[in-house]
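[09:14] KT: can someone run the structure on this one? pasting the chain below
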Amino acid sequence: IQFGDIYGYVRKSDTGYATEREIPNLNKNYKNIAHKLETNEQVEVYDNTSGSLISFGKIDEGQIFPIATDYGNWWRVLYLDRVGYVRKSNVTLRYADFEEYFKAEEDLPVYDNRGSDSLKKVGEVEKGKIYNRVSDYGNWHRIQFGDYFGYVEKFATSPDNGKSVKNRNEGYSNQDRRFETLEDVTVYDNSSGGLQAFGKIEKGEKFPIATDYGNWWRVLYSDQVGYVHKDSVKAEFKNGD
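[09:31] RB: done, structure tokens below
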């Protein structure tokens, strides 16, 4: 049987015949992500298809088991290719090992943590795109966001080698000019010859400019070369003005 990301074995003599129609929570949509859980004790795996929690399996203490998705106070897991739920309070989250790059598995906020009260959303990374990390920061990736650091939560990301990144910055630097966004703006990659969205900057944010580019501003977004349309931002000004 498939037991997490390894094969498990069940003695045939203690089993009977069953059909697929008897399995209400058969997996048809989910797959395991890069991160795993470690069980702090023997934990129950529950089926929730009936609207009530019904135990249909166990994972012993000290086991490492892959995660499919977050689900509030639970982790959704694939247990013998059935969709199950494990209480977060009974396990420890183990992040995958990241190096220089990560892939966003969904659209994710970029936060500024410089305020004293709370995290402020300043942008987004795009599902399926690859980003450069400045460093690890516990549960977060630290990235270069304009002229300060932004933070992206690790959970909905996976490690990547960065080889598919075509718009890596190899020669530009930020000037002593910035723009202010008039709306939530999209940052585009043009390395393929066609514009592809790979990031967002929230309305009201001030962001440094690398160069002028006709109707666009060329910017450095997580150390990748991007383009923001001038119509979406206020006229540039010098830092400190």
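[09:33] KT: thanks! Residues 17 and 23 are 12 Å apart (CA to CA).
[09:34] RB: yep, looked fine to me
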